[in-house]
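*** Query protein ***
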Amino acid sequence: MEFRRLGRSGMKVSEISYGNWLTHGSQVEADQATACVREALEVGITTFDTADVYAGTKAEAVLGEALKGERREGLEIFTKVYWPTGPGINDRGLSRKHILESCNASLKRLQTDYIDVYQAHRFDYETPLEETLRAFDDLVRAGKVHYIGVSEWKASEIEAALKIAGEMGFDRIVSSQPQYSMLWRVIEAEVVPTCEREGIGQIVWSPIAQGVLTGKYLPGQAPPEGSRATDVNGGDKMISRWMRDDVLEKVQLLTPLAEQAGLTMAQLAVAWVLQNPNVSSAIVGASRPEQVRDNAAAAGKKLDDDLMAQIDQVLEGVVTTDPGKTASPEKRP
């Protein structure tokens, strides 16, 4: 496993992070989820990402149980706050009330005294940004959180937060967690340049495009039984944007390029996002331990300029680059 600094912070993270968004507590039974976490540790992954909302808070609890007994100082545990975690009107968003209450609940579920990076899961248009940042800063000063991050924030929103943090002496944002893959490149035009300038590192999710970039989905054919595309708990909705024959046909053309590089298709996809110097880590999920090991093998792999250019040529016409696609709900769910 290779490690990179998280932006300009002093903390390092594993190039491959283990995430449990659509698996722990929903798709995968606890024993299998624990086996995946144990495999992640075995291959040298030290960075684990989750969120309070995943599987209705169950994902945090499963991860906390799976990591119990590990040396806490040797791990980087990330979680998030924003989406609804209860029926109450204040059980959502980035108000001071919800942030502080959610942090305490996450700490209990994760069975830890602190969170390494606590992330705003979306931008909250209903709460003054000063209120949100002060609540995060208070958690840092209380020792419950080490660093602050954001997820799916626009460049303008990140800039506004940095300006307020500078003026009020708050702890600065050190990480951004956007979706990023060969097929979804919306951060490249605005978010990445802003973050490079401000010393913020990307912890990217869905580098394999929900599994599409493994090549297992074939044009004109039904998706394999038990795959993400058949998951009625939410996985099928996210992957649907790529389940078009024009996309799937082009993805199949990546197979010889992966073979040329000596990589599996999944490894090629993960290695591709890691070629971006602003990316600190790529989050991978898994339902089986062998998937963790396969994905982790992408760490440290260098793709030459010619291969990167060939990938761009193959995928021309099906890549999404519009920075406007990064958006938070105008009203809290």
Q: What stands out?
A: The chain has twelve helices and ten strands. The mean pLDDT is 91. The domain at 3-208+269-301 is CATH 3.20.20.100 (TIM Barrel). The beta strands are 3-5, 12-14, 16-19, 47-49, 76-81, 115-120, 145-151, 173-177, 201-204, 279-284.
